[in-house]
Amino acid sequence: MEEKDSKTMISVKHLSKKFGDVTVLKDINLDIKEKEVVVIIGPSGSGKSTILRCLNHLETPSGGEIVIDGIKLEEGANLNAIRREVGMVFQRFNLFPNMTVLQNIMLAPMQVRGKSKEEAKEKGVELIYVNTAKMNNQVEELKALSVDGKGFDDVFVYVPVRGVAELGNKILAYDGCMNLFAGPTDSKFSADVNLYDCHYNATKILGSTGGSIDDMKEAIDRAARKEIKPAVMITHVGGIDSIVDTTMNLPNIPGGKKLSYLHINMPMTAISDLRSLAKDDPFFNELADICDRHNGLWSAEAEKALLTHYGVE
Questions:
Q1: How many CB atoms lie within 10 A of CB 250?
Q2: Is 81 exposed, middle or buried (0-12, 13-18, 19+ CB in 10 A)?
Q3: In what order do the strands lie in the sheet with 8-19?
Q4: Could you tell me what percent of the chain has a pLDDT over 70?
Q5: What is the overall mean pLDDT for the chain?
Q6: Which is nearest to 255 in space by CA: 241, 240, 239, 238?
Q7: Could you give the CA distance from residue 178 to residue 207 in angstroms, rounded to a whole number?
Q8: Burial of 165 (0-12, 13-18, 19+ CB in 10 A)
Q9: For residues 297 and 271, what is the distance between their CA atoms, to the nearest angstrom?
Q10: What is the pLDDT of residue 19?
């Protein structure tokens, strides 16, 4: 909560940022008081990450002024001194793969703050691996592993399984947040959560996912090397005429990714239901056979057959 006489910690005046001819930030003005909590919300590409990077001067603004705790960020300013006091969590962490999690966390305090190895380790993190199947009381035994034994500030759920989500909700501490990171494919996926705690213990639930251009490049590279099978994500196939209805009704369509071919007209159809189209076109029995040979997955063979059938070269 903002205090009446609290000082301004971050002041942004007429900030702008361009990448070539593209203006990402235009005349941004912002004042953030001491202890004030501010959330920047917007769709992908709206400039959220860019403004944060400008505040750290990881991106040089094209215009405007940034003042942090009375220090104006400009040429000649001691940026490293400011960065030592400003924390930032990046979309892509760029961790050192040859180090453990604890060693990665210890690195910044040692390199930036000059802390000893012992001091950095004391403020680090302890990794504990447990098998909840062997616990008599999962909730109480997991809570006992937290710092004060009262639960966790943050719980990440990486599988859309009802029991896991409900367990995650039960082990939250006061003001804790459960992040459902795994996107369910079932539009009716639900779980029992404690709404009393949401109201009186300030617990929160959010769903999120993350990705960057580098993530996409890595995924494409791994797919090219056949290390991953992106085909498992595709559950429906259709043509250009199905895009509007599919988009409008997406929350009601179960499954994963919907693949649309812009060259053809075809209703958006689940791969498992392709044979239902055979009553009007026997070809879809053949297409379903191809998918069956690939363990029910879409494939290059299925795509070639579909496009050939519609006369697309």
A1: 11
A2: exposed
A3: 22-33, 8-19, 63-68, 71-72
A4: 93
A5: 86
A6: 238
A7: 8
A8: buried
A9: 7
A10: 86
Q: pLDDT tens digit string along 134-171?
A: 899 999 999 999 988 999 999 999 888 899 999 999 99
Give residue 49's identity as a one-letter amino acid code: S
Cβ atoms of residues 157 and 164 within 8 Å = yes
Query: What 8-state DSSP symbol labels residue 296?
Result: T
How many Cβ atoms from other residues are within 10 Å of residue 258's Cβ?
Answer: 19
Are 194 and 170 a contacting pair, CB within 8 Å? yes
Using CA atoms, how far apart are residues 271 and 291, in angstroms rounded to an integer?
8
| Cβ within 8 Å of residue 145, ≥6 positions away | 128, 130
Q: How far apart are CA 37 and CA 77, in angstroms?
A: 26
Answer whether 55's CB lies under 8 Å from 66's CB. Answer: yes
pLDDT band with cut points at 50, 70 and 90 for residue 5:
low
Model pTM greater than 0.70?
no
Of the candidates 79, 59, 64, the one whose C-alpha atom is nearest the C-alpha of residue 29 is 64
Tally: H helices and E strands in the chain? 11, 10
Q: How far apart are CA 271 and CA 290, in angstroms?
A: 11
> Rounded CA gap, 162 and 275, in Å?
32
CA atoms within 13 A on the CB side of 1: 2
- Alpha helix (H) residue ranges in the chain: 48-55, 79-83, 101-111, 117-122, 138-143, 162-170, 195-200, 213-224, 243-248, 283-293, 300-309
Q: Which amino acid is at 50?
A: T
C-alpha 28/C-alpha 269 separation (Å) is 45
